[in-house]
Write a structure and sequence with these properties.
- This protein is an alpha/beta fold.
- The protein folds into 2 domains: about 200 residues, 3-Layer(aba) Sandwich (Rossmann fold); about 90 residues, UDP-galactose 4-epimerase, domain 1.
- About 45% of the residues lie in helices and about 15% in strands.
- The protein contains 11 helices and 13 strands.
- A 7-stranded parallel sheet has the order 3-2-1-4-5-6-11, sandwiched between helices.
- α2 links the parallel β2 and β3.
- α1 crosses α8 and α5 runs parallel beside α6.
- The longest helix has 22 residues.
- It is globular.
- Bound molecules: NADP nicotinamide-adenine-dinucleotide phosphate and ligand G4F.
- The site of ligand G4F has 23 residues, from α4 and α7.
C-alpha cells in the first residue's frame, strides 16, 4: 500500500486528490493547520479514510514531524495562500506560505530522508499566474515568467526551488504549472464560484445582482477533478519533470457570465451585474491560455470536462445548495 502526504487537503484540489489516491488504494495523510480547524470535519466526512496530521507550512519542525508520521512515498504540496486578490493585502504572509513554504517542505524532506531525496517523490502546485504579463501565447513549460502579483512572485520562487532541489540534491521533484481549474468545491472568493453562486441566488429570488471587477480578463478554465489526475501521473514517471496542464481554450469573464446566466434561461444579464473598483487588481493578468501538449504526450493526460459542462455543473450545484439554505 503506497502512502501519500497531501498539504492543503482542506482545499479544492486537496479533496479531489485525496479521493483519487484513496480510490487507487493509497494510505492518505492530510496536513491540517491550526489547533481546531473546522475544515478537518469536512475532510473526514468526504474522504473518511484520510488520516489527519497537524502541521503548518510556516513551521519546519511540524513538517518534519508530519513526514515521520506519514512516512510517505509521495508528497503533494498543495497548501498556499492561493487567492491572488488577497496577496496584495497580505504580501508578506503570501511570500512566507506560498513561497518559503515550498522551501520548508523540501528541506523537511531532505532532513527526513537523510539527504537521499529520491526516496520521496514531491509534487509542487505551481501556477499559470507565473506567466502573468505573458511573453508568448499559448504558454508552455519554456515560456518565460513575468508574475504580476505577490502570489505570482511567490509561486515563481517555489517553482525554481523545486527545480533547484531536483538539480542540487537529485530530488524526485515535479512542478505542475496548472492553469485555472474550478469545481463545485471552489472557494466563494474566486470569480467562477462567485458568478455561479450569484446566478443561482438571482434565479431563486435570493439576490438581485452580482458585483464584480474586470470583465475583460481571459482565463483557461478546466475541471479540478481532471487536474488532480495530472498531478498523480507526474509522480508516476521514471524521471521527474515540469508540465503545463491546461485546456488550451480561453474565455473572458463575460463568456462566463453568458454561460452561467444562459444556463438558467437569462440571456441578457446586463441588469444583474455591477462593477466595483474594489474588485479590480493593482496589476491584472489579462489573458492566460496554456498548451498542455507535453502532458498529453508524456503523461497521457486529457481533460474530460469542457468549459460549458463545468459552468453547468457549478451552477446546478449552487442552485441545489442555495435552495436548501433558503
Ligand atoms: P485552496 O482551495 O485555496 O486551498 C489552499 C489550501 O492551503 C487549504 O487547504 C489551506 O488550509 C492550506 N493552507 C493555507 N495556508 C497554510 C499554511 N500556512 N499551512 C498549511 N496549509 C495552509 O487552493 P486550491 O484551489 O485547492 O489550489 C491548490 C494549490 O494549487 C494551491 O497551492 C494553489 O496556489 C495552486 N494552484 C491552484 C490553481 C487553481 O486554479 N485552483 C491553479 C494553479 C495552482 P485551510 O483550509 O486551513 O485554510
Ligand atoms: O478567479 P480568480 O480570482 O482567479 P485567478 O486570479 O486567475 O487565480 C486563480 O488561478 C490561478 C491559476 O492561474 C491560481 F494559481 C490561483 O491560486 C487561483 O486559483 O480571478 C480570475 C479573473 C481575474 O482576472 C480577476 O481580475 O477574474 C477577474 N475578476 C473579475 N471580477 C474577479 C472578479 N476575480 C475575483 N476573484 N472576484 C471578482 O469579483
Amino acid at each position: 500500500m503506497k502512502r501519500a502526504l497531501i498539504t492543503g487537503i482542506t482545499g479544492q484540489d486537496g479533496l479531489y486528490l485525496a479521493e483519487l489516491l484513496s480510490a487507487k488504494g493509497y494510505r492518505v495523510f492530510g496536513l491540517i493547520r491550526g489547533q481546531s480547524n473546522p475544515k478537518a470535519a469536512v475532510v473526514e466526512r468526504l474522504v473518511p479514510n484520510v488520516e489527519i496530521v497537524g502541521g503548518d507550512l510556516t513551521d519546519l519542525p511540524s513538517l518534519i514531524s508530519a513526514l515521520e508520521v506519514a512516512q510517505p512515498e509521495e508528497v503533494y504540496n498543495l497548501a498556499a495562500v492561493s487567492f491572488v486578490g488577497l496577496s496584495w493585502r497580505q504580501a508578506e504572509l503570501t511570500g512566507d506560505v506560498t513561497g518559503l513554504g515550498v522551501l520548508r517542505m523540501l528541506e523537511a524532506i531532505r532532513i527526513y530522508t537523510g539527504g537521499d531525496m529520491s526516496k520521496v517523490r514531491f509534487y509542487q502546485a505551481s501556477s499559470s499566474e507565473m506567466f502573468g504579463k505573458v511573453r508568448e501565447t499559448p504558454q508552455v513549460e519554456t515560456t518565460p515568467f513575468y508574475p504580476r502579483s505577490p502570489y505570482g512572485v511567490a509561486k515563481v520562487y517555489g517553482h525554481y526551488m523545486t527545480v533547484n532541489y531536483r538539480e542540487s540534491y537529485g530530488a524526485y521533484a515535479c512542478s505542475g504549472i496548472l492553469f485555472n481549474h474550478e469545481s463545485p468545491r471552489r472557494g466563494y472568493e474566486f470569480v467562477t464560484r462567485k458568478v455561479t453562486r450569484g446566478v443561482a441566488r438571482i434565479k431563486l429570488g435570493l439576490a438581485d445582482s452580482i458585483t464584480l471587477g474586470n470583465l475583460e480578463a481571459k482565463r483557461d478554465w478546466g475541471f479540478a477533478g481532471d487536474y488532480v489526475e495530472a498531478m498523480w501521473r507526474m509522480l508516476q514517471q521514471d524521471e521527474p519533470d515540469d508540465y503545463v496542464v491546461a485546456t488550451g481554450v480561453a474565455h473572458s469573464i463575460r463568456d462566463l457570465l453568458d454561460a452561467a446566466f444562459g444556463h438558467v434561461g437569462i440571456d441578457d444579464w446586463s441588469g444583474y451585474v455591477k462593477q466595483d473598483p474594489r474588485f479590480m487588481r493593482p496589476a491584472e493578468v489579462d489573458h492566460l491560455v496554456g498548451d498542455a501538449s507535453k502532458a498529453t504526450k508524456q503523461l497521457g493526460w486529457t481533460q474530460t470536462v469542457d468549459f460549458s459542462q463545468l459552468v453547468t455543473m457549478m451552477v446546478d450545484n449552487d442552485l441545489e445548495l442555495e435552495a436548501r439554505a433558503g
